[in-house]
Write a structure and sequence with these properties.
Number of domains of chain B: 2
CATH class of chain A: Mainly Alpha
CATH topology of the largest domain in chain B: MetI-like fold
Mean pLDDT of chain A: 91
Largest interface: A-B, 89 and 96 residues
Radius of gyration of chain B: 24 Å
Largest sheet of chain A: 2 strands, antiparallel
Low-confidence stretches of chain A: none
Strand order of the largest sheet of chain A: 1-2
Low-confidence stretches of chain B: none
Oligomer: heterodimer
Number of strands of chain A: 2
CATH class of the largest domain in chain B: Mainly Alpha
Number of domains of chain A: 1
Distance between the termini of chain A: 36 Å
CATH architecture of chain A: Orthogonal Bundle
Structural class of chain A: mainly alpha
Helix content of chain B: over 70%
Chain lengths: 281, 278
């Protein structure tokens, strides 16, 4: 069969491959090259070595601020989203009435796009802050917690679904055996339930982390970096560097490469972590 | 013991009901405000519309004409449906080929597709938009090719994962019966791929329907999809017509909720499968 199929490369692979070259491979390689040059239109690139990378960190504080903001946001989101999601999953697997309806409701925000989410939460948070006669863009901490609230609303249901699947795959006999041995309540949770769902925990941690790090639409719609770029996350900072000011395209591309390396590193660690778990299991 | 259990269940139920209300509240508040005059929205966002603030469908009329929402809905629908169908067809074919034909090319391609999944969009956005522009792909038809290329990583990966679990004998039997590969693909392989096709379709639909930056950079505001239309409403420095914004948010959320309620089972399954593998 291999032989017969092999001749059909142009039919089966070529269309996808051409599209893949146009919208990924070539832009990726070009981007890598351009990060070492000064350019405005791709054709006028001038080699500057690591100049753009140095400029990204030293010309102003924007990139470093965005990096710290993103790291802090991601840490807080990973913790809050996963605690809430796990708690919901635990409650919804103990057989209370209306479980399916609750699941439907909690998952629903996940399907709403980032731009729409951003404006929904802008209304809510400005509405709450109105009492103190300030707005979302008055202080970066409002933007920060606004993004955290939004992120929780969007991701809790999603992670909950993964935790539910994990919890449901725990064999009933295991829990029964533990109960017979006298384990109950928190001991059952810590010593039986939690270790059994560790694969789900790993998946959810990395999914939340990746989502947090790459957040863009929500950030653009909710605060657009205001006040004075102090709530701009990495993706938004890169976008602003590219399109916000002239002659900074090279620096924007260098920031994008750094961003790629960070995200790639997270994915690499995830791969290692899940592989090891599979071997253990 | 039994009554204790019932007690916790009541407590759990009440907590879940309260949390459900809290989860639905943001959407309800937006819905409520979409019927209020634009000047009352930032003052009293949590108050129901009353005689003084109620403006009927005015926000919807203004919003629809300002953003060209109906046109945007059509562009979103057209781009999403045609891109998803294109992705499904071509990436299923590619995945079958590179899974069944063992060669260095197949292995190399598979590696590149997986690699593309971890690269954030910002890495390629500038150069991709330039190339799309250069090749005249900056229109609703051209963006399908961009989506096929950028969506191929996850889709090929997901299809391949499934194809690996299908015994190759079924296909070999079909081919021995004189079926040439293209016919074999459509009559034997594609029907077997149905469950994973749904997963790939759902993942790509949610991505493309909600995507903002890629169509904005590739097409611009000439053919506005729904997210672009909403962002466009914001205009210059903070001058948002809050009334129109609320109405447009409601109109943007309605199709998603309808889609969700009508194929909830597949959506949750699809997203779960995508998450656990990805």
């Amino acid at each position: 069969m291999q032989k017969a199929l092999k001749k059909f490369f142009p039919v089966f692979v070529l269309p996808t491959l051409i599209a893949f070259l146009i919208s990924f491979i070539i832009p990726f390689l070009m981007g890598l090259y351009l990060s070492f040059t000064e350019f405005t239109t791709v054709n006028d690139a001038k080699w500057v070595g690591f100049g753009n990378y140095i400029k990204a960190f030293t010309a102003n504080q924007e990139f470093v601020n965005a990096l710290w903001f993103t790291v802090k946001f991601t840490i807080v989101s990973v913790i809050t989203v996963n605690i809430f999601a796990f708690f919901l999953a635990l409650t919804l697997t103990c057989g209370i009435k209306g479980t399916n309806l609750f699941r439907t409701v909690f998952f629903m925000p996940n399907l709403i796009g980032g731009i729409v989410l951003g404006y929904i939460w802008q209304l809510i948070i400005n509405g709450i802050l109105y009492r103190w006669e300030v707005t979302l863009t008055f202080d970066p901490k409002y933007g920060f917690w606004g993004l955290v609230a939004l992120m929780n609303w969007q991701l809790i249901g999603y992670m909950m679904i993964i935790y539910i699947a994990g919890l449901q795959s725990i064999p009933e006999e295991l829990k029964e055996a533990a109960k017979v041995d006298g384990a109950s309540g928190s001991r059952l949770l810590w010593n039986v339930t939690l270790p059994s769902v560790m694969p789900s925990v790993t998946i959810c941690f990395f999914l939340t982390m990746a989502n947090g790090f790459k957040l863009f639409d929500q950030n653009l719609a909710l605060t657009n970096g205001a006040p004075s770029k102090r709530t701009a996350m990495l993706a938004l900072d890169i976008y602003n560097t590219f399109y916000g000011k002239n002659d900074w395209e090279g620096v924007g591309q260098a920031k994008a490469v750094i961003f790629f390396i960070i995200v790639g590193f997270i994915a690499f660690v995830q791969l290692k972590a899940t592989r090891r778990r599979e071997v253990e299991a | 013991m039994k009554s204790g259990k019932r007690g916790t269940n009541v407590f759990a139920s009440v907590t879940m009901i309260l949390l459900s209300v809290a989860f639905l509240a943001p959407i309800f508040i937006v819905f409520m405000n979409s019927f209020k005059g634009k000047l009352f929205i930032s003052d009293t966002p949590f108050a129901l519309p009353n005689v003084k603030t109620f403006v009927g469908m005015q926000n919807y009329m203004v919003g629809i004409s300002k953003t060209g929402f109906l046109q945007s809905f059509q562009w979103s629908l057209l781009i999403t449906v045609s891109s998803v169908l294109t992705i499904l067809l071509f990436t299923a074919m590619t995945a079958w080929y590179i899974t069944r034909v063992k060669s260095r090319t197949s292995t190399g391609l598979y590696f590149l597709f997986v690699f593309s999944m971890i690269v954030p969009f910002q890495m390629v956005m500038f150069t991709m938009a330039k190339i799309a522009n250069l090749l005249h792909l900056d229109n609703p038809a051209g963006i399908i090719i961009i989506y096929l290329g950028f969506g191929s990583g996850l889709s090929v990966f997901t299809f391949s994962g499934f194809i690996k679990t299908i015994p190759v004998e079924i296909e070999e039997a079909a081919m021995i019966d004189g079926c040439e590969p293209i016919r074999a693909f459509f009559t034997v392989i594609l029907p077997m791929l149905q469950p994973v096709t749904i997963t790939v379709a759902i993942l790509n639909t949610m991505w493309i329907w909600n995507d903002y930056l890629l169509p904005y950079l590739v097409i611009g505001t000439k053919y506005k999809t729904i997210p672009i239309a909403i962002q466009y409403l914001k205009g210059g420095y903070g001058s948002i017509d809050m009334g129109a914004m609320m109405a447009m948010l409601v109109l943007a959320v309605i199709p998603i909720i309808l889609f969700y309620l009508s194929c909830q089972k597949y959506i949750i399954q699809g997203i779960l499968a995508g998450a656990v593998k990805g």
